[in-house]
Amino acid sequence: MYQKLIVFVQALAAVGILVIAVISLMGQSTSELRIEMREEFRSSREEMRSFRAEMQEEFKAVRAEMQEEFKAVRAEMQEEFKSVRAEIRSFRSETQEEFKAVSEEMREEHADIRADIHDMNARLGRIEGNSGL
Questions:
Q1: CA-to-CA distance for 42 and 34, rounded, in angstroms?
Q2: How far is CA 82 from the centre of its chain?
């Protein structure tokens, strides 16, 4: 009977040792898992920081490119505006010159018409004077 009790105690001790071994193994794997998770988290954080820095650099490059393009378009538009403005001034000057020329012609024609009317009135006066009306 003692022998069965000794075997039972030995079996119980073996089971206890096995349980302790499993628990300590789980504890080790848990701490290893925790360490591994921390490393993964740090790695992910570094990747995110790197990605963010990359995106910021790309954004800066795109922004600089857009600003350069905007400056080029703006300069082109200013040149176009200056050209159109010069054309308008030229057209305005030409129109004013034409208007002056037409006005001068009309003054001359008006003066000619007035002279013709004056001559007609003078002739009419002579005719009336000669006919005794």
A1: 12
A2: 24
